[in-house]
Amino acid sequence: DTAGDGTTTATVLGQAIVQEGAKAVAAGMNPMDLKRGIDLAVNEVVAELLKKAKKINTSEEVAQVGTISANGEAEIGKMIAEAMQKVGNEGVITVEEAKTAETELEVVEGMQFDRGYLSPYFVTNPEKMVADLEDAYILLHEKKLSN
């Protein structure tokens, strides 16, 4: 038997839960009761999955799982394993659609934002027109700063 990674199953189940939940609420069910029921079911399913989960330790095992997730494309599976090896368990892997047919792996140290800078005065490298900051301070604020 061949088994996938469960993404299609999870998507179909999620859609069914939403559809049937909407029907139940339309028929008079209390939405909070529905939410509590879903939460209880999620906790049970997660606990059972944790019992049955098999820990993977090697890069080859990561590549096997990656290959399954990539619909059997071994090259992509190997690239996923390589990316996991480079960033570690706590790293972030972002998959983006390329403008070419070539598949490539790019490792970015630190953080990279795909949006432009607020002012051209932030540019630290005029040749490349990038703002490359090290040990930058970041301010998080809920409201708009006016001056």
From TrEMBL:
Q: Cite the Gene3D superfamilies for this sequence.
A: GroEL, GroEL-like equatorial domain, TCP-1-like chaperonin intermediate domain
Highest taxon above the source species: Bacteria
Q: Name one GO biological process term.
A: protein refolding
Presence of keyword Chaperone: yes
Q: Which InterPro entries match?
A: Cpn60/GroEL, Cpn60/GroEL/TCP-1, GroEL-like_apical_dom_sf, GROEL-like_equatorial_sf, TCP-1-like_intermed_sf
Output the Gene Ontology terms for molecular function: ATP binding; ATP-dependent protein folding chaperone; isomerase activity
Q: Sorted alphabetically, which SUPFAM superfamilies does this protein's record hold?
A: GroEL equatorial domain-like (SSF48592)
Keyword Isomerase listed: yes
> What's a Pfam family this protein contains?
Cpn60_TCP1
Q: Which keywords accompany this UniProt record?
A: ATP-binding, Chaperone, Cytoplasm, Isomerase, Nucleotide-binding
Instruction: Name the family.
Output: Belongs to the chaperonin (HSP60) family.
State the PANTHER family in the record.
Answer: 60 KDA HEAT SHOCK PROTEIN, MITOCHONDRIAL (PTHR45633)
Q: What is this protein called?
A: GroEL
Organism, as annotated? Brucella pinnipedialis
